[in-house]
Design a protein that fits this description.
The complex is a heterodimer of chains A (about 120) and B (about 110). Chain A has about 120 residues and is mainly β. Chain A has strands spanning about 5, 10, 20-25, 35-40, 50-55, 60, 70-75, 80-85, 95-100, 110-115, 115-120. The relative contact order of chain A is 0.31. In chain B, the strands form two sheets. In chain B, strands 2, 4, 5, 6, 9, 10 and 11 form a seven-stranded mixed sheet that branches. A four-stranded antiparallel sheet of chain B has the order 1-3-8-7, with no helix packed on it. The chains are: A mainly beta (about 120), B mainly beta (about 110).
Chain lengths: ~120, ~110
Amino acid sequence: QVTLRESGPALVKPTQTLTLTCTFSGFSLSTSGMCIGWIRQPPGKALEWLARIDWDDEKYSSTSVKSRLTISRDTSKNQVVLEMTNADPSDTATYFCARINTHAGTWNAFDVWGQGTTVTVSA
Amino acid sequence: EIVLTQSPGTLSVSLGERVTLSCRAGQTVSSTSLAWYQQKPGQAPRLLIYGTSTRATGIPDRFSGSGSGTDFTLTISRLEPEDFAVYFCQHYAYSSYTFGQGTKLEV
């Protein structure tokens, strides 16, 4: 069974660095075709894709936040970490991690999601 | 970046009704790269449809997707109580993902 779980601080002050961790099970990020993406959702608003990391350590980020994001992985711990610098109140959102399996029919969609973690950016 | 526009924003519907949700892309997109998700309050999105018309694992056959070019549709043939939720379309191209703003189904 594939599961993902996000963790991180519930409250971050403006200008601080927000660090979120996605811990997953049921698959390996070393397996060809496996990727993990981060998506956020401000309260009552739409989903916004942020970043993706692949089985071969290729990384992709949204142009809107690219300069502030770092995505990394620890395959031994089955974890992916997202760092966002210079946090702003507009970054207040629920952050989801989700799997992408580029070797499946669902290759261009997020087929399994974590439950999300809510982050508030406020002084 | 491709913009996806969903309409309507909110749809008032009744149990047993047939419902059609629209997702329009700002330019022609590949039908293999269009997906739909369902999200209930306080929950993560769930993949319903990928490749425009293929149901994801475990999705009931009352959900169907269609479309091509710039216009895509999610149809629910007979609304069940558990279908009241927000529905998002999503597109993938050039290692980037975009979502529509969502359509909320309410009683």
